[in-house]
Write a structure and sequence with these properties.
8-stranded mixed sheet, two-stranded antiparallel ribbon
């Protein structure tokens, strides 16, 4: 009986280690611990969820990287991503993936998040502020500043484990992914472009500037809103 009990405990610990390893790079430490403890579960397979998607990348980084040594490029990206991912986790988001000099983050999957659209926009503003501080440090050292563009959309998409029998990743597919990506591509340096769907979930808690219509590849004509500032903070 003692041997059986020990084997069960060993199996439970191994499963906890697998969960930590699988999700520690995607979720904040607090959410990982909730998964490990069994307080929340992530169901396998594709499921439809209301989700806010955020894309961000560095403007002009390809040309900048051509002027730098490869080691410097890697160091800059690591420093940048360290700050950006910390902000995603701070606002209860999930890191979906890195995309070259950008990243994709989610609010609403794989775990439900209260007030996801507002937290995503608040995270975007925090990213812009953090980068301004980082650039101040770079200018003091006579280094070139970095500038990011951000795109955000909210809507229903399919989330689940996707891939081959050898490698499976948790990711999402759907129109909000496409629109957020296109808005990010259209954003100028320091701009945070959000869709009407995201804006409608925010009420009067942010200040925005509605831009002229723009043609987005595969989307059509869209008049996005550029986020200027927050009028209230998360939780208010």
């Amino acid at each position: 009986a003692l041997a059986i009990e020990n084997s069960i405990l060993i199996a439970q610990r191994e499963e906890q280690l697998r969960v930590r390893e699988r999700f520690s790079r995607l979720l904040s430490p607090a959410l990982v611990e909730e998964l490990v403890s069994g307080k929340v579960e992530i169901a396998p397979g594709g499921q439809s969820h209301e989700t806010t998607v955020l894309f961000t990348d560095i403007r002009g980084f390809t040309s900048m990287s051509q002027r730098l040594e490869a080691e410097d490029v890697v160091r800059i990206l690591n420093e940048h991503f360290e700050s950006m991912v910390d902000i995603v986790f701070e606002f209860e988001g999930t890191l979906d993936k890195f995309l070259g000099d950008g990243l994709m983050a989610l609010w609403g999957v794989p775990l439900a998040v209260t007030d996801g659209p507002f937290k995503a926009v608040a995270a975007a503003i925090a990213m812009r502020d953090a980068l301004a501080e980082y650039n101040a440090h770079r200018r003091q050292n006579d280094l070139e500043a970095l500038h990011i563009g951000i795109g955000i959309d909210t809507g229903r998409l399919v989330a689940g484990y996707m891939g081959s029998s050898r490698t499976m990743n948790y990711t999402v597919i759907g129109p909000p992914v496409n629109l957020a990506s296109r808005l990010c591509g259209a954003a100028k340096a320091t701009q945070i472009l959000i869709s009407d769907n995201t804006l409608s979930a925010l009420g009067d808690r942010i200040t925005v500037e509605t831009l002229e219509e723009m043609e987005l590849k595969g989307i059509g004509r869209v008049a996005p809103d550029n986020v200027v500032s927050l009028r209230s903070h998360v939780g208010e």
